[in-house]
Amino acid sequence: MLCTFSKDLSAACVPCDDWRITTVESVARLEKTRVNVKWARNLQVRFTLPDASTETHDSVIRALLMLDPDATIRTSRATFEGLEDFTAQFKVRVGQ
Fold it and tell me: Are 6 and 20 spatial neighbours (Cβ–Cβ below 8 Å)?
C-alpha cells in the first residue's frame, strides 16, 4: 500500500523520528494489526498489513483518510483519491 499525504502532519504528532511511519504504525496499532513499513520519503509511505483482513485494510485506509482527507492511497486493487472517493468506492463495493 502507498499513502501519499497531502500535507506534513508532523505538528499533529508527538515528537518522533518520522511522522509518516509513526502515523501509519499508530493507526495499525489501533486496528490491532501488524504493519511493515517499507520506506518513507517526502509525503509518501509504503507499507503492508501482512495479516490483516479486508475489513482491517478498509479500517486502516479510512483512519488514515480521516487524519488527512486529501491523501491518496494506492493498493494493489484500487486507488483512493481522498476520503470522499474512498467512501464512494466503499459503498459500491459493499452494496450500500
Answer: no
